[in-house]
Every structure is written in C-alpha cells, then in structure tokens.
C-alpha cells in the first residue's frame, strides 16, 4: 500500500502545480490587460459579487503632487549654481556684481520644506533668501534714491573670519505723487496650468492686484495656449468687474506658445504706453514654453531688445512638477524686472498688495556694486550668493551694461566673508607674473580701512550713471553685539549654506542658525521671520 500511496501523492502534487501555473498565467494576462484599463485590474482583483475598497496609493512627493492630472515625472529645472570661491585680495582686489531684488527662491524652497522635503541644491539662491526679508536701514537723505549701510563683525560659521554686510534702502514713494500704470497681464493658460496651484491661484492673485489700482491705471490681458490672444484690451482699472470677468473666463488647455505671448504682450504695452508712467508686462507662468520662440536664449534676446522701450517685466512663477525656475530667472534679468514665486494666496498678498508699490515702481536702474579690498587688511574674500549676478570689473564704469533695478522702499543686502590679513589659511592664487609686479601703495598699510564700497546707478529716465562711494573700517564688534540686521541676514545666509551643503559652512548647524535667528527676530509685524524660524526647525527635524 505504501508505494501506491506515494504515487497518489505525486500525481496529486503534479495536478496542483499545473493548476497553480494556469492561475498564474491567467492573472498575469489579466494584469497586462489592466495596464490599459485600471477598471479591469480592479475587476480582476475583486471578489465576485462584492465591491472591493479602493487600494491606497503612497502619497506623492511635494514636487510631484498635482491636485488634478497627476504627473508621473518631475521635470522641474534649475540652473546650476557654482559657489563663489575665496579670492586673493592682492591678486583680485576688486569684486563687482549687480544687485538682485528677486525673491522667488525663498518662496520656492518654502514650498518644498512645508511638504517635508529638502529642496534641490540649485533651487537655493542665497541672495534671494536674504532679500525676501526687509531690514531696518535708514531712509536716504537729499536727492539720493537709496541709502548705503555697512557693518562688519565675526563670521557665525567661522569665528576666525569676518563677515561684512552691505545694505541698501530705497526711498519710500509719496503715494499721492505716483505715476499711472500701464499693465499687461500675460497669462499662461496652457494645459500644464490646470492644477489648483497654477491657473486658479494665478487668477486669485491678479484680482488682488486689480483691487489696489485706481482709475488712472490701465490693464490689458493677453493669454497664450497653442497660440496667443488678446483677452482684454487696455481697460481702466476702475472697471473692476469687467477685468475680473475677463480673468474668470480663462481656462487651461493646449500647448504653450510663450514666445508668441510675450511678443503680443509687449506690442499691447507699447501701443498703450504712458509717457513717464509705469509700463510693465506681468508674466504669470510655470515657465514651460514649448511652442514658437521657446529657447531661453531666444527669449532673453527678445526681451533685451524690448527693455529699450521703457517697458519693464515682472515674472510670477506658479506650480510644481514641471516648474522651469532657471529659465524664468534668466528672462527676468534680461527685462529690467523682478521675479517671484507664488506658492499660496498669502504670498500673492505679499507680492501684489503689501509690497506692490516697491515691486512695480523702479526708483533706480542698473545698480551695480564694486568693492575694493585693502590687501594689507584682507587676505581673501568671498561674496556670499549672487553667483548669477557677478560682473566683470570693467563693466562697473560701462553705462551700457545692464544691471539690477531697485524699487521704491526695497531693501537689498549683500554679504562678504573675509579672511583677515595674516591668517594662516591658504587661498588659491595664480603664479607670480613674469612681466609685471603688483605693488601695494604704502598708504594702504597706514589706513584702518578694510575696503571701499562703490555703487553706480541711473535714475529711471536717464542713461548716465551716478556714483556713491563709502569706506569701511573694523571696530572689532563681536557677533553678539552686531545689529539685528546683521545677525538675521547672517542666519538666513547660513540656512542657505546648509541647504546647499556648502563647503564653506564650517561648523554651522541648524541649531546654530535657529538660535541666531530667534535672537535677532526683531520687529516682525507680518510674521515672515517667525515663519523662517519654523522652516529652520522643520529642516532640523528632517535631517536628524
């Protein structure tokens, strides 16, 4: 009986294996069919005559999260940032750069962090983080459109180094003397803009701006999707309902003819130009141009030509997943304009309501800063941030070279990290020259001056620059006694260095940044600095 029983078991086992293999093939075929139809996959997995509860899918990352039309791939683009290195003050005594009042980077990295994700390194532009905040600099005196403040103290991430702060404060406008506005809203209504944090948020944002204008101001609306079109001809801002109705009729669909839209918007702005007024195109998009004039180089050349017509450009970025940050930064630099990222309605309120006058009214253009370091006091220096704004030293005196614009009431802050003369640290330098010798003037050692700051700027309607010059000495102020302006801007810079994993961050930690920010929070009526502190706390938790 034993052999027969064994044979029975063998036959039974073979039968079971064949059955299972057939089931496996059946299920595999059903799964293949379900690729084209999720409903079929649901039916294949369901229990007969019973509805199966929908399966849970993992929450997408903050980058890819799209309220509708979920995208499988993250195609966000950021231009590569190569950090400024230390430069030998004897061989390279001059440092020249254009000011930058853009604030897009800070709002964009906030979007990542509030979604519990660290931002891409190249999305972190430290100067835009610093300049997101206002600082308590004095108002300018006389006819100058801005004041210049300087301060030096210990460097928070390396106490053996020094940190220099340069602060500009734009003159506040007399709101009773404002020039009228000729604004053209250029709205991206392509298919990529359908999600709630894109076109719907864009329309809500522009409505806030409309509410702040008066009957002397004019608004036109151009939209582009596949091809560009004039949605609303130039209309007095007092016709609030007509303008809002035109915004409300916009819907997303089609491809993105961004280049064609820009051409039409500038033409409409030119046809309705207000002499001595504020003429501006406000481009609202995710930056994903893919029809017509679409390469960054072509767009930059087009806008560089149009800025000669006294028409400025403001870019407002929206959305996530396919966001083209690097492209929009390049375009804004070319158009005598500014660049913001709007991630929520509160940021829209900040840009279009609280800071509208500063963002729309330029009081100085082509503002350049050039610093000359005294090599008897400074061994080496490094500009913190502004990598995309560095200029050739020869450009400082060339009035044909474009630079940044300063708006009414704007503050601009720049930081230099300095290696004092006599420090043992080695810095990169070139070989000694064969045909000439660089001499240091004997008077350099006899002065306490660390450096001299020079600024060039033009008034909005002029083409000849004016010069401001200011020397800086080191009183030996310890970091703890430095101003709130100095310490808070340093904490923001330090935060940016940590997010970029900068090789210059020294012994800096999130806890160090947090302590410095809390101790220098100062007046914070809108809560922006408190929000910054929460972001630092979040990153500290994310990196544990």
Written account of the structure:
The chain is built from 15 helices and 16 strands. The strands form three sheets. Strands 7-6-5-8-9-10 form a six-stranded mixed sheet, with helices on both faces. A five-stranded antiparallel sheet has the order 1-12-14-4-3. The protein folds into two domains: 93-173 and 363-421 and 447-542, Gamma-adaptin ear (GAE) domain (Immunoglobulin-like); 178-360, 3-Layer(aba) Sandwich (Rossmann fold). By secondary structure, it is α+β, with helices and mostly antiparallel strands.
What's this model, at a glance?
This protein has 544 residues and is α+β, with helices and mostly antiparallel strands. It has 15 helices and 16 strands. A hairpin with a 7-residue loop joins β15 (449-458) and β16.
SSE topology sketch:
Blueprint: H1 2-36, H2 38-45, E1 87-88, E2 94-98, H3 104-114, H4 126-130, E3 146-155, E4 158-170, E5 181-188, H5 199-211, E6 218-225, E7 227-236, H6 240-248, H7 258-271, E8 278-285, H8 296-306, E9 312-317, H9 325-334, E10 338-341, H10 345-354, H11 356-360, E11 362-373, E12 378-384, E13 404-407, E14 411-420, H12 442-445, E15 449-458, E16 466-473, H13 484-499, H14 510-519, H15 528-542
Parallel strand pairs: 5-6, 5-8, 8-9, 9-10
Antiparallel strand pairs: 1-12, 2-11, 3-4, 4-14, 6-7, 11-13, 11-15, 12-14, 15-16
